[in-house]
Amino acid sequence: MTSERERVDNDSPWKEILEAYFPQAMEFFFPQTAALINWERPHEFLDKEFQQIARNAEQGRRYADKLVKVWQIQGEEIWLLIHVEVQAKPEDDFAERMFSYNLRIFDRFAKPAISLAILCDTDLTWRPNQYSYNYPDTSLHFKFGTIKLLDYQNRWTELEKSDNPFATVVMAHLKTQQTSKKPRERKTWKFSLIRRLYELGLAEKDIRNLYRFVDWVMILPKALEAEFWQDFKEFEEQCVARVPRVVATAEQERTMSYITTGERIGYERGQQELVLRLLQRRVGELPQEVKKQIQALSLEELEALAEALLDFTAVGDLLNWLQAHLNETEN
Predict the structure, then answer these.
(1) What are phi and psi of 86, to 5 degrees?
(2) Domain named DUF4351: which ranges (predicted)?
(3) Where exactly are the structural domains of the chain?
């Protein structure tokens, strides 16, 4: 769809959702490995360590990679290397790269890593899961875990029944692929998937996180995006009409308040993108960590930042503003 809003950083929503729901991701995609882990102990994302071993990643390609420290039930520390192959085309040297990353982790940190890959491409026949070579006196066989999102096409009923956040992630991914040249059908599925978040009775935080993922990957042309929000407003009005305010139960009140939150989420998302664009024009490219801090701001805080940035001349001004805001919040 040439009229779609283009987003080149399609790895970003995967990184965000993996960070927000890492235990659920492991339980959904790799249950055997998840069963080894003591989830009562906190896991740790080793972003700096991964940057050290991934310094030679192929230029121009984008990956959603996470190196995570977890603790086994027996009490031992293990590292997990989670790779999400976001770009929708097979890669000839993928298995070699998985081996290379695993070897670099061991070489650099003396830590064996469990290597796992989530394949998001559209080729049913591409299923890399090992790298090997064999000579008379030397041989190697490296095997890594893979999950193919296309396989869930035949498990749709199972996805619909699941309340694991990654059921929604997979559904959104598959329907995005299937509607690449069908914008109206995509709009229908986007509405259906977001409405499902409310119908599941999820916490507001979970609705926000999953909404962000669905909204990011299921891009619509501007006109259809406006239609989408109109449909959603009508859905909200129907819910209110079915439940008179004077007799609404606490659960019904909670559901309706989340539906109303939908438009605020969309507006807040737009405000974030606008503020980020304005900041980059004022002070230049922003570090990823700074972008995350801005994305964590509330709507009121974003509006305050939008006013303050008019006086910024360098990235230091932004950092000072964020630090001052953090100090106010803590006090």
Answers:
(1) -80, -45
(2) 266-322
(3) 11-153, 155-281
